[in-house]
Amino acid sequence: MTHTSVAAYAAPAPKAPLERITIPRRELGAHDILIDIKYAGICHSDIHTVRAEWGDAGNSPIVDGNFPIVPGHEIAGVVTEVGSEVSRYEAGDRVGVGCFVDSCRECENCKSGLDQYCTGEPGMVNTYAGTGRDGQPTYGGYSTHIVVDENYALRIPDGIPLDGAAPLLCAGITLYSPLAHWKAGPGKKVAVVGLGGLGHMGVKIAHAMGAEVTVLSQSLRKKDDGLRLGADHYYATSDPATFERLAGTFDLIVNTVSANLDLNAYFELLKTDGTLVQLGVPENPLPVAPFALIGQRRSFAGSLIGGIAETQEMLDFCGEHGLAADIEVIGAEQINEAYERVLASDVRYRFVIDASTI
Predict the structure, then answer these.
(1) Quick one: which of 187, 185, 182, 168 has its CA closest to 94?
(2) What is the per-residue pLDDT for 61?
(3) Residue 11, helix vs strand vs coil
(4) Helix H segments across 104-196?
(5) 30 and 8 within one domain
(6) How many domains in the chain?
(7) Which residue in 160, 293, 294, 333 has a CA-CA distance of 20 to 30 Å to 8?
(8) Could you say which of 302, 321, 344 is where a domain stops?
(9) What does the alpha-carbon distance between residue 64 and residue 351 come to, in Å, rounded to a whole number?
C-alpha cells in the first residue's frame, strides 16, 4: 500500500458537528499493518475532545489537538495487508486498536509493560489528536482503514464478535486494569459508580473475577440491567440512606462518572485501607477532604487504560469468559445524534459505528 486517502468522519472545528471527509493514511512501513476497520466504538472521551472540553488542563494526555479531528480509539477490524517485516499478524487476522498507537519503547515504563504511562519521547501517542513519529497528526477509528505498527495492535479472540469487541479496547481495559491491579476477586467487595459504557464493563469484569459487585447509580432505573450484567447489589446514590447503609463496606470503588461527584461521601463507603479509583474525567477539579482519607487509611487513586500487554490479557480474559460490550450499532450518519444521546445517558451501553457506512 502506498500513501492514500480514505473516508472518515471528523469534527472540522471545536464543537462543530462531525462530517464526512477524506484523510491520509501513511505508506505501509516494514512493521506496519493495514486494518480494514469493521466497527468503531463511541467513547465519551471522543465527545470531550471534539468539543474542546479538556484542552491542556490538568495535564491531560488527551489534548484538543489540531482540527479536523477524527475520533475513535475503540477499533475492531481485519488485517488486509502487512509490512515486509511483520511477524505478529497476517492478512485475515481479527485485530483491535485501542487508545494509543506508539510510545518511546525505551523508558522504564515501556519496558515493564506500562507503556500507557510512557515517560520518554514521543510519549504515549494517542490514536487520534496526537502526533506520530513522522510529525503528522494521528486520525482515529471513525474511518474505513487505519495503518498501525504491529506492536500496538491487539488480537481479538475468535469467540468475541467484532462489534461487541470494539468497546473493549477502551471501556474494557479502562476497567480491567484497575480491577486487576487492586486485586478484585473472591472475598473482595467492589463498587462500580455509574452504569454506562465504562461501568457496565466494570460490572461484567469484576463479576467474572469473582468479586462481590455493587452498582452505585444515581437512580434505580437500570437496576434490572445491573443485576443481569452480574451485579450482586444495586443502590441509588440519590437516596441519602444509601451512604448511611453502606458506610465502611467496600475494598475497592471504581468511579466511572465524568461528572463532579461529592467524592468525600464515597470515601466514607470504603473499608479501612480501601481504595477509590477515579476513571471518569470531569471538566473541573475534584475537591478532596483529607480527613475522609486519613481516618481509615483510605487511598484515592487514578488509572489510565492499560498497556498493550495488559490489553491483550484483558481481551483473552473476555474471550475465556464470553464477555463483550452491550452495544447499539449505528450508521455513520447517526454519529452526531449518538453524541447527543450519550450526553443524555440514552444508550445501553455503547454506540458502535458500522464502518461500512462511512
Answers:
(1) 168
(2) 43
(3) strand
(4) 108-111, 162-165, 171-181
(5) yes
(6) 2
(7) 160
(8) 302
(9) 22
Cα separation, 135 vs 100, in Å, equals 16
Q: Which residues of the chain have pLDDT under 70?
A: 1-3, 54-65
Q: Tell me how far apart the alpha carbons of residues 257 and 164 are, in angstroms, rounded to a whole number.
A: 22
Q: Domain range spanning residue 155? A: 4-170+306-357
Beta strands in 171-293 (DSSP E): 189-193, 212-217, 233-236, 250-255, 270-278
Question: CA 34, CA 27: separation in Å to the nearest integer?
Answer: 9
Q: Residue 141 corresponds to which cell in the numbers above?
A: 477509528
The CATH number linked to 49 is 3.90.180.10
Residues 148, 46: one domain? yes
Under 8 Å CB-to-CB from 280, ≥6 apart: which residues? 44, 194, 198, 255, 256, 257, 258, 259
111 CB contacts (<8 Å, ≥6 apart)? 105
| Same domain, residue pair 268 and 319 | no
Closest CA to 210 of 190, 193, 227: 190
Whether residues 327 and 230 fall in one domain:
no
141 and 180 together in one domain: no
What whole-number distance in Å separates Cα of residue 99 and Cα of residue 279? 14
Q: Are residues 352 and 323 in the same domain?
A: yes
Residue 287 burial class via C-beta count within 10 angstroms: exposed 0-12, middle 13-18, buried 19 and up: exposed
DSSP 59: G
User: In the prediction, which pLDDT does 235 show?
Assistant: 98
287 and 324 belong to one structural domain: no
Residues 28 and 144 in one domain: yes
Strands 270-278, 299-302: pairing is parallel
Among 323, 58, 312, 351, residue whose Cα is nearest residue 169: 312
What is the Cα gyration radius of the chain?
20
Q: Which residues of 258-282 are buried (b: 16+ CB within 10 A; e: fewer)?
A: beebebbebbbbbbeebbbbbbbbb
CATH number of domain containing 197: 3.40.50.720
Q: Could you tell me which residues are beta bridge partners of residue 11?
A: 69
